[in-house]
Design a protein that fits this description.
With about 400 residues, this protein is mostly helical. It contains 17 helices and ten strands.
Length: about 400
């Protein structure tokens, strides 16, 4: 692949190889140059940053804004979310980002997350009990998906009967069907209606859950001031983000990790012998095949230089987390799954002020889910030929369509 950063602003790389064989395509791009002009996820031109040092620096660079208002007119077509879902942390810079993050971060402290470990293990065991008698399962639908959606819905206080609808809406947003553009519009409308109704119900009858706490922050002053209050759109958007990200990232992490272990039976056997090593192994699963292939799109507020390439203000910048985490200059022999390697500094959960808010919860859920699974089914194996296991066709995220297993 050519380094299109050197061939003019209108030259773009075809992103098909990034869908078909992403790690090989990213390795070729990384070798060819640090920054490339590609067709972004919305079909518009974007700058793709591929090397670890550049990606890490850019993630923490305050000149690269998440606020779409800094985009050059006509340069970006993103999700057409209504304001009540769009006023979330993934579109915000300080000071609004700082204010809102401060209000919710206490729900995801290591101490609070550790208190959830036993309930998460009970959820995992219940799901495994339901699977056990069958001798086989579709692991994404039967286990990797239901576990995080149950955990995050319990945290927010969302009734169980709404969870199946949410899974369908989430799939419509992450992997939209080009032949059915109305499906995404329907999912967005349904989600907005759902969150609006849920907040109204919680406002009328608060519960012992995170959403009720956030509503109290929205409706009440804090320390006698208005400084930390949420707007109604911010409240709805925050509930949307916590549920959406809390589900999507974790289901993809669990599915990718189990597949990696099935592809590396010696690593699977080692973890069964030494389950205490799962904590470290989860970090390698995140680096090796993490759920976020790209960081949230950035827009320079002024002209910036990345990897020696000048990027004009307002143009789209895509930071390749997947490529950075396979950069051999940072992680030697990066295509090898090795939980014993030195793993500090991987970027799977971000870096800087936008570091993943739910990182402690995602780590704990993955560790608990994988540990329970491999303990319950010591002869776990793929139930289809390896070439029939496919990832979703998107350059934005990295997750499995399905994972049929047997034991």
């Amino acid at each position: 692949m050519q380094n299109t950063a050197e061939t003019g602003p209108d030259a773009r790389i075809d992103t098909t190889p990034l869908l078909d064989d992403p790690y090989a395509a990213l390795a070729a791009l990384r070798e060819a140059g640090p920054v490339h002009r590609i067709a972004g996820t919305d079909g518009q031109p974007a700058w793709l940053v591929t090397r670890y040092d550049d990606v890490r620096s850019a993630l923490a660079d305050p000149r690269l804004s998440l606020d779409k208002r800094h985009a050059t007119p006509g340069n970006y077509r993103g999700f057409a979310l209504p304001p009540a879902l769009d006023a979330n942390l993934l579109n915000m810079d300080p000071p609004d980002h700082t204010r809102i993050r401060r209000l919710v971060v206490k729900a995801f402290t290591p101490g609070r997350v550790e208190a959830l470990r036993a309930p998460v293990r009970r959820i995992a065991d219940d799901l495994l009990d339901a699977m056990a008698a069958k001798g086989r399962a579709e692991l994404v639908a039967d286990y990797a998906g239901p576990l995080p959606i149950t955990v995050i819905c319990d945290l927010l206080g969302i009734p169980a009967e709404h969870r199946r609808d949410f899974l369908a809406w989430s799939d419509a947003l992450i992997t939209p069907d080009p032949s059915r553009p109305e499906a995404m519009k329907h999912a967005i409308g349904a989600m907005l209606e759902f969150y609006t109704g849920l907040i109204a119900a919680k406002r009328a009858e608060p519960g012992d859950d995170l959403l009720s706490d956030l509503i109290a922050v929205r409706d009440d002053t804090v320390d006698g001031t208005e400084a930390d209050r949420l707007s109604e759109d911010e409240l709805t958007s925050l509930a949307f983000l916590i549920l959406f990200a809390g589900y999507e990232n974790t289901v993809q992490l669990i599915g990718n990790a189990v597949l990696a272990l099935l592809d590396h039976p010696e690593r699977l056997a080692a973890l069964r012998r030494n389950p205490a090593e799962l904590t470290t192994a989860v970090e390698e699963f995140l680096r090796y095949d993490g759920p976020a292939a790209l960081a949230i799109r950035r827009f320079p507020v002024e002209d910036v230089e990345i990897g020696g390439v000048r990027i004009p203000a307002g143009e789209s910048v895509l930071l390749s987390i997947a490529s950075a985490n396979r950069d051999p200059k940072r992680f030697p022999d990066p295509d090898r799954l090795d939980p014993t390697r030195e793993l500090s500094g991987h970027l799977a959960l971000g870096h800087g002020i936008h570091y993943c808010l739910g990182a402690p919860l995602a780590r704990m859920e993955a560790e608990t889910a994988i540990g329970a699974l491999i303990s319950r089914f010591p002869d776990l194996r793929l139930d289809v030929p390896r070439d029939e296991v496919h990832h979703r066709r998107t350059i934005r995220a990295r997750g499995l369509i399905s994972l049929p297993v047997a034991w």
